[in-house]
Amino acid sequence: MMKLILLAHPKVDVVLGADTVVIGALKALREAGKASPAQFLGGIDGEPDAVEELKDAQSPYKASVSLASPIFGYALGSFAADWLEGRSVPQAMDILPKLLDADNIAAYERDLKNPEAIFLEASRRDEYLRMYGNICFETRDQFLNFPGRRINDREFRICYAQTCPTMSRIRWMKSSIWNGFVMICMSASKWPRSRTAFSA
User: What letters, b where the CB count within 10 A reaches 16 and e where it falls short, cover 65-96?
Assistant: First the structure.
């Protein structure tokens, strides 16, 4: 796609989108000899290729928003184990988007190497996750229902059987991804408005 864009707009200064797409755009810019540290490329997902680009001071890749999958994955597994043991778990969990750039990428990579340590230390966990309320088996009919409607016990059993928590996580992730896109746009807004920008 970027190759076609470059035919119509040879000067591209900003590219935003999912990391995998923006990495592809960066490859096309480099092949065309049009990649420059003065450009602003930013993505969402904290993909390994994007993380590597952030470490290179000469790369136009300036930011990526990550949901820190190892940390929230560890949290989900831990809470699932707690639930099966009859312990209380949070009613909801928000996965906070983290804006990655050259200044914080080393600390971020250290955090991902040991998600258990991050999860067990509340102040560090709060950088990645926000939990709401508590629920256990005895209070399972009193859970938070984000669409604004409480469902009855029969509906809960049906939803639970259909992995309702998974669908809820997908809704929260979509919300977090949108917040991340806004964060990237705020970072890119430092660039002059006259520049040509494309969102993948």
Answer: bbbbebbbebbbeebeeebeeeeebbbbbbbb
